[in-house]
Amino acid sequence: MIDPSSLSLDQHRRQFPALAHKHYFNYGGQGPMPAAAIAALHETQLKIQTDGPFSAAVNRWLQQLGAETRTVLAHALQISPDNLTLTEDVTVGCNIPLWGLDWQAGDRILMTDCEHPGIVATVAELRRRFGVEIDTCPVLATAQGGDPLTVITDHLQPRTRLLVISHILWNTGQMLPLADLVEHCHGHRPDPVWVLVDGAQSVGMVPLDLTASEVDFYAFTGHKWCCGPAGLGGLYVRPEIRDRIAPTFIGWRSITTDGQGNPTGWNPNGQRYEVATSDYALMPALQAALAVHDQWGTAQQRRDRICHLSTQLWQGLQTLEGIHCIMATPPPSGLVSFQVMEGGQPNRDRHTQIVQNGETQGIFLRTLLHPHCVRACVSYLTLESEVEILLDHIRQQIQTVRIHRPVQ
After folding, report:
1. 266: nearest Cα among 237, 308, 234, 291
2. What 3-state class would DSSP assign to 29?
3. Where in the chain is the domain with CATH 3.90.1150.10?
4. Residue-averaged pLDDT of the chain
């Protein structure tokens, strides 16, 4: 594990303008961009407009940017660039296989009770349009003990065709055992079950080898733990099943053409799920952000520090009266969620107060609705001293409430 001096980490943090004079705990919502990524964004737009936004030279350069970005992301995910589709975000990435399968009435989708509302809404629409049956397994309860692998696999049905899960649950911080789930689903009878993963909270936080995992679909974004610009993400599709997922969104990047520009078929690689013109300036910005992270340490070294900090925060929360952590053990991720309990129930007003009052003091958190709680996200960029500042803030908010509580 890397253990840089506070000075070297301070120097590294200075590359992130958003970290100046504030304590940022919202990496799971949107990561702060480093100055190099902001500069790359500006410089690319300037070059496009200076050299001509629709010229042969610029078009060749933009295609090169796309190829470079696929190569960089593919290396991070341990996949071939041919198996990567560039998308706008996780939701678009998940929608591609969800709408690309040839659903039949009576087919079943299994998902956990910790999926993001955008995915839940998409699956509900599939049910309305195609008569697909939806099963939901209670993974949230396993945050306090239990085996999520058993809970999920016990809910597979004979006609389950797709399992939809998050690699790291956005509300609890749990990390699901991806390789074991994939192995079980692929061995399901009478037919294998494909696995679609929402990687919003994992890419940029944990080392990944998607090829070795044999996962079928893995959607991700660059604007959270990667600290890249909003509007650029990706989708991995296992190449063995690519031809079985029909493109739903179709454009000139999806297809091959003849000498007269007429469509002749689908692009043979992951670009078949891409559509048309993109904001190409986002691509070098994301590359720059990933390069800044690599300056500090490897993906595993960054993950080790994140777990060290999340353990520090979780343990500190255990010492505060009236605080209930959503996970019974330190989370294996950078997401630490907790509740203020009063009368045996979470107090929503106190959650809002902690977040709102924190922001006036330069401490950035967020509330979640299911379960209703406060979520703090620690990155490798977070300082140990910032964790203590956060704990002091929570302690003060609780004490203030008790001091001003009216006598019954």
Report:
1. 237
2. coil
3. 6-32+298-402
4. 95
C-alpha span between 87 and 96 (Å, rounded): 10
Burial of 194 (0-12, 13-18, 19+ CB in 10 A): buried
Give the pLDDT confidence score for residue 6 in this predicted structure.
Answer: 53
Q: What is the CATH number of domain 39-292?
A: 3.40.640.10
Angle between helices 56-77 and 35-51 (to 10 degrees): 150
Intra-chain end-to-end CA distance of the chain, in Å: 52
The number of residues in the chain equals 408
Distance CA 116, CA 385 (A): 32
The whole-model pTM stands at: 0.95
5, pLDDT greater than 50:
no
Q: Express each pLDDT in 34-70 by its tens digit.
A: 999 999 999 999 999 999 898 999 999 999 999 999 9
How much is the average pLDDT of 287-304? 97
What is the Rg, in whole angstroms, of the alpha carbon atoms belonging to the chain? 22
Residue 2 has a pLDDT of: 46
Q: Which helix (H) or strand (E) holds 282?
A: helix 282-296
**Nearest CA-CA partner of 116 in 124, 108, 128, 107:** 124
- Per DSSP, 168 falls in state B
pLDDT reported for residue 336:
98
Mean pLDDT computed over 302-309: 98
Q: Report pLDDT for 399.
A: 87
- The torsion angle over the Cα atoms of residues 6, 359, 327 and 219, rounded to 10 degrees, is -90
H/E stretch holding 309:
helix 299-318
Beta carbons within 8 Å of 297's beta carbon, 6+ residues apart: 2, 305, 380
Type of residue numbered 313: L
Specify the domain boundaries for CATH 3.40.640.10 within the chain. Answer: 39-292
pLDDT value for 407? 46
Is pLDDT at 26 greater than 60 in this prediction?
yes
Taking alpha carbons only, the member of 180, 131, 126, 129 closest to residue 152 is 180
Does the domain at residues 6-32+298-402 carry the CATH identifier 3.40.50.300? Answer: no
